[in-house]
Structure prediction request, 226 residues.
Amino acid sequence: MAEHAMERLLKPGDRAPNVVLDAINHGGKVAIDDFRGQSPVLVGLYRGLQCPFCRRHIAASALLASALREKGIDSLTVVNTPIERARLYFRYHPMPGIITASDPENVAHRAFGLPNLQFTENEDEWPYKVSMPTVMAMRIDMPGELPEPMGCLDAAAYLNNKDGYEMTPADQQTDEKYGGQLVGEFLLDRDGIVRWSFTEVEGGGSNMFAIPKADDVMSVASQLSH
Prediction:
């Protein structure tokens, strides 16, 4: 367990660390400290854009961005995708309501305590290791998106085909490095303290590929508004 000693998932009440990343929307950098003392911010930490579940999670976050902005809350989305590939994607899928950042070295996810799952032959140690039999037994039910409950690998392939998403070498490299990266959202107040979170870590895997309910996000946001 020593290898996991430095990974502690941030919880409500914890102070978020500063992380400095390359901005996707524009040149330059974006940092957690940019918001500290200025405004609350919803930080979404996702796998690379090659993950169709993450793309849907990001799109759902973008839909909430204007309502959050009305409450004085910014939205920061972080992906493991390298900067040039990420800029190309958002050029064709603009989401003006959110600030986007590239994190190909997985700095933010580690800082917030989100593990990168290792895939094993037969060892399960959630949330650090998961066996391939466990992965193959998972079923994803997304009515309206999938024709029926499907295994996660088949579901990902189906959704990528449905989206017309073509994997590039950069996508493949990201998937090889961070295909098991667990994701999450953290709502920080203007002092940078976590006030709410939703991650794939909790629930022993039951939150995998899930998206938090908009009402839950907005309920907490209302408490942080002006």
Summary: The CA atoms of residues 61 and 71 lie 15 Å apart.
